[in-house]
């Protein structure tokens, strides 16, 4: 795979992501899920391919997640679409005026993002929702390219420790900063990187976190409110 500099547009990144076959374990899993399906989606035509980023090319806010859900993005073909995590994410993005509607059900549902772009550390649904670091490394050029192609980006919201560290690696800060100076992951933590980018950390809105109360709706909305304030320069 070529480096991030090889991509001249977000469309080029999108096409490269969809055609990617660099992680055999992930590709086998995505195709197996797409063939077997879940009973609730038995009549759906599953996407079954790597899932590209989605959003506004003029975004000031980047949301970085872990990976597509097996019956979410791997089914619908759009990141955070068609699964409980996406229900939480798009409701909050709509509440804070980043999304045109509060729910995302398919890549043809008319959803528009304003000032926001959504990506994932890994672009294929992983078994047990656990990608390896090696798989994240193989996907890293896509996130690095998106960072380079979002010229207005000022705020990054990382959902979970894996996404948080993946962003730091893709942006180059992981190696540029001494270990003691790297932003640490903690829910609600806000860090300003040397170039002025604001990094906000949050627990991932996974069903496990939301059903156990590790992440409550109030906690989640406070994080998105912080992102909105940061985008506005507050």
Give the gist of this structure.
By secondary structure, the protein is α/β, with parallel strands linked by helices. The chain has nine helices and six strands, in the order H-H-E-E-H-H-E-H-E-H-H-E-E-H-H.
Strand and helix layout:
Elements (H helix, E strand, L loop, with lengths): L9 H10 L4 H13 L17 E2 L5 E5 L7 H4 L7 H12 L20 E5 L12 H16 L6 E5 L1 H11 L1 H4 L13 E3 L5 E5 L4 H6 L4 H15 L3
Parallel strand pairs: 2-3, 2-4, 4-6
Antiparallel strand pairs: 1-3, 5-6
Can you tag this structure with a few keywords?
234 residues, 39% helix, alpha/beta, Uracil-DNA Glycosylase, subunit E
Describe the structure.
With 234 residues, this protein is an alpha/beta fold. Helices cover 39% and strands 11% of the residues. The protein has a single domain, classed as Uracil-DNA glycosylase-like domain (Uracil-DNA Glycosylase, subunit E). The protein contains 9 helices and 6 strands, in the order ααββααβαβααββαα. Strands 1-3-2-4-6-5 form a 6-stranded mixed beta sheet. Helix 5 crosses helix 6 (161-171). The chain is globular, with a radius of gyration of 16 Å. It starts with 9 loop residues before the first helix and ends with a helix.
